[in-house]
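Suppose a classmate hands you a notebook page containing two proteins, each written out with its sequence and a corresponding row of structure tokens. How would you begin to make sense of it? This section walks through that situation. The first entry is reproduced here exactly as it would appear on such a page.
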Amino acid sequence: MSAQYFTGDQEFFTGIGAIRFEGPRSDNPLAFKFYDPAKKIAGKTMKEHLRFAIAYWHSFCADGADPFGRASHDFPWNHANPMTAAHLKAQAAFEFFTKIGAPYYCFHDADVAPEGDNVDEYQKNYWEIARIFRTLQDKTGVKLLWNTANLFSHPRYMNGAATNPDFNVVARAALQIQTCLDVNVFLGGEGYTFWGGREGYMSLWNTDMKREAAHMGTFLRMARDYGRRIGFSGAYYIEPKPMEPSKHQYDYDAATSIGFIKEQGLEKDFRLNIENNHATLAGHTFAHELQVASDAGLLGSVDANQGDAQNGWDTDEFPCDVYQTVEAMMVILRSGGFTTGGLNFDAKRRRNSTDMEDLFIAHILGFDTFALGLTLADRIISDGVVDDLLAKRYSSFDSGSGADFEKGKLTLEQLAGIGKTAPQTKTSGKQEYIQSLVNQYLFG
């Protein structure tokens, strides 16, 4: 059945206009309280710093269903014809992007068009919606931050994609990646993401881990080379996650992923897309994962959400914790800010947030939380008090024998000799003082 075509004049979010900045005293739930896109901070506007993106999958596909209950969200773009629904959903999405004021969006191939019954239908459907996206991008000015292939939902990928023990599945995954990169270039995407949802194992009894990791490296190099040949000049991203759905995934956390990137010779082209909730599942903080990536020079982009420490799964909540966003934005600012990356809201409304306006309110919460993080992080960095305390803690390495040690100029014998006569000093970390200072910045 062919799709019904629409003019794009239909309004899906009726009664909701463009979301404006009204300031912290506003009682309007459909207004920004802290995100002022035109406000200048450290030489750039908030909009330029934060580079917000909307996740197509959670905002327009996640219907509130969970393992214990069916869908609770009703979408006005639903239709019995899957391609008609895809057309409607695309128009609804761009209406939302423009009303919320997001400059970017992100998607999986499976989010935007039905796969169909064979490869030809997959590509035909995908390209049909891609051409609609191109028209809507030109009309609205909204851009593609990155796209990706869903290589984890279909049963063929139950044992992984690039790491699958069946070569035929690896080849089928390559077709999806090739198509997604073609679409990316067509839409002017600024990055491309790999999330290895099932690139891992459930049991070592039936897994050749060394061979699978090598296959994944080969696969990523092939994808990198193809993208460069067709004109993709942006960054490739790997998104770390320790498990779920696999018991153990090969991109466990930032440090593991960086080791893999360097082992496979991908560091010139690949960066990390760090997700807060995935950091929680790995037993780390959001700031830790960002700092590890930044220290390696491989911080690329961010999936902006938060998890629940009491839940052992990926809850993908909209960020509301200002302490976390202040820490995050301090790392991002100190690393030079985003280039091809940004803050993609990989977050979904709660199952019981069923009003259409709740999609706006949830994103307003996320925008405002990161705007506060940006504002306060810049203030802390500009004041320099916290940085001065940090520098003082390591000052013994700034001159003399300490500086020689850092430069690799001492032998172990020389270092041990210094230790014979060195005074046994204790340098306070001033942790509680710094935490009180942060509270002053946040609430003073």
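The notebook's second entry, a different protein, reads as follows.
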Amino acid sequence: MSDITSIPEDRDAGFGDYVALLKPRVMSLVVFTALVGMLVAPGGINPFVGLVAILFIAIGGGASGALNMWWDADIDAKMRRTIKRPIPAGKVEPGEALGLGLGLAGISVIMLFLATNWVAAGLLAFTIFFYVVIYTMWLKRWTPQNIVIGGAAGAFPPMIGWAAVTGDISLASILMFALTLAWTPPHFWSLALFVKSDYKDAGVPMLTVTHGRRVTRNHILGYTFVLAAVAVGLGLTSVGGPSYMVVAVVMNAIFIKGAVDIWRRTDEDSEADSHLVERKVFKFSLLYLFVHFGMLLVELTLTRFGMGGW
């Protein structure tokens, strides 16, 4: 962690700065996947209890974001895409971010336990710990496989949502976890291909920095095939069905084609067109996960009308 301990006295932190600490864009993915996990879980949940559970899962995700920004303030100040975050921009003191993150983490876990069960609360607590300690404080600055292992933190929400309803873990919830876990490497590495200098300047051992773009392209291709297998496997569980499977096959075919296109590229190709292919694959990856989890909801709706499921 850096020695960033003070900011200008004339700072003018607003409500939006504290919201930004919670990484609302990341939180939206947390909320959506957790909600899907909750809705497709067998047995159902009281709507009010479900709303409360989602609220505190979101707060737990926000707590992770605040603690991540507190610890990473030094490298955020060196990267173009993060330099305007509240701490390096001088809007929020590191101690405020730490206090906010710890407070929200404690509240979210306790309240989720009171609203649902210890399995869901335990998973949320472990998710926060994993993201902040295992990924942010350790893996991110130590190994080029940081994204592969650290991606687990962002993959737990559907399991938490499922556990909030059932109090357990099942094959379907594990595969929802695995879908997000396998998606994370090709998603972030396609981004890293065209922001390599940022990670290098910040001293983050991203694969593009430690092993180069050719190795990164190989890894993207390999993980995309793993991702496709997981996506199809999820379609064969109780939460999948024909509609999901058709969309999954199409989406994964497109993703694989994009990964192959990236794999065929050279550094000269990428520099010549400003990483056009890499940017397209990254943008598609943003849509990919929402479509897959959205189709699980479509299958749920069709099943209730007797038109879905296997």
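A careful reader of the second entry would note: The chain is about 75% helix and 0% strand.
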